[in-house]
Amino acid sequence: MENIALIESFSEFKDDKLIDRVTLMAILEEVFRNALKKRFGSDENFDIIINPDKGDLEIWRNRIVVADGEVEDENEEITLTEAQKIEPDFEIGEDVSEEVKLIDLGRRSILALRQNLIAKIHEHDNTNIYKQFKDLIGEIYTAEVHHIRHRAVILLDDEGNEIILPKDKQIPSDFFRKGENVRGIIENVDLKGNKPSIIMSRTAPEFLEKLFEQEIPEVFDGLINVKKVVRVPGEKAKVAVDSYDDRIDPVGACVGMKGSRIHGIVRELGNENIDVINYTDNTQLFITRALSPARITSLKIDDERKHVEVFLKPEEVSKAIGKGGFNIRLAGQLTGYEIDVFREGVEEDVELTEFADEIDAWVIEEFSKAGLDTAKSVLEQDVDDLVKRTDLEEETINEVRRILKEEFEQ
């Protein structure tokens, strides 16, 4: 009776965890054999018969009958006297099969059996979850906000699997509420101990690429190919697209009438400014398109060094650089070329590094991060704009401008 009650309680796991019958039987037998090894020193002479569907369990120990007083291994041998208590007809040298009741293993062993079974079931469950999400790396996934921590948001999917969205994988403008559904891509899956660690990302370029695939039918159908995606999460992105059908305008199809198709993607990414660009193998044309909305006058390309000098009219320079230097930085990442901007028609300019004796190096570095490497590039900008584009105080900027102006007044 104890056997049946115990196996019935174990069989509940089959329904809860959706484990197939063969796997459950294998796990059950492994757990029982481990218990027999601890109790008797070996499990090799035991037969275990399990039927989890009916709740049947039988354990039989097989021993050889030996003369009284000649038992060397109590687990594998039984005296004639003890054997004849089981069946009077037994003789020396015969095999005896005796049923072992679970209660004979002791209460503590039965508790350990249940704990080991739970651990094995969880281990099997976690292995399956790991394999499932390993196959989903790079794919969009949706889960619900369960807990908000300082360094991460903990999500749960419909199956109760825990997914981690770290702070550095969130778009800066992201704000989540408990119970809210969140989309991202599965970026990484690891096994920490026996528990899978599933990491989601909303900042990866692949997330934007998958959003295009999900939201734009021509991309999903393979008529439009997303060649490359670069982005500053929450700020700006550039997406190069190409079409296998000359009748399809890939940019127009992705953007939609009055931006109708791309609007949902922009909203999902916290109003990230997305430039969709026609891909081309023509390097000069591709760089020109990548620096949009600036209009380029001419280019000087060094393919060996992957470097390009871009010449523009002075009023186009700020457009090429863009807010925070994002436009020129992303254009470089998209094309694979280091881009230097030069003002066409400007008679003379001076690199900021030439003023190192008067301006601190870290201040020059701040201007450089914003794409401003020359004296005139700084002087042409509005002070308020410089404050926004750099981490410099207005007082510092005004002092730098004073030093630069003196250079041109001499």
Automatic annotation (TrEMBL):
Keywords: Cytoplasm, RNA-binding, Transcription, Transcription antitermination, Transcription regulation, Transcription termination
Location of the Transcription factor NusA first KH domain: 202-279
Cross-referenced SUPFAM superfamilies: Nucleic acid-binding proteins, Prokaryotic type KH domain (KH-domain type II), Rad51 N-terminal domain-like, Transcription factor NusA, N-terminal domain
Compartments, record wording: Cytoplasm
Domain Transcription factor NusA N-terminal: 6-125
GO molecular function, one term: nucleotide binding
The keyword Phosphoprotein is annotated on this UniProt entry: no
One cellular component (GO) term of this entry: cytosol
Main subcellular location: cytoplasm
Domain (NusA-like second KH) ranges: 284-344
GO biological process, alphabetically ordered: DNA-templated transcription termination; transcription antitermination
Oligomeric and partner information: Monomer. Binds directly to the core enzyme of the DNA-dependent RNA polymerase and to nascent RNA.
NCBIfam families per UniProt: NusA
Family named by the database record: Belongs to the NusA family.
Entry function: Participates in both transcription termination and antitermination.
Name of the molecule in the record: Transcription termination/antitermination protein NusA
Organism: Spongiivirga citrea
Species lineage: Bacteria, Pseudomonadati, Bacteroidota, Flavobacteriia, Flavobacteriales
Gene expressing this chain: nusA
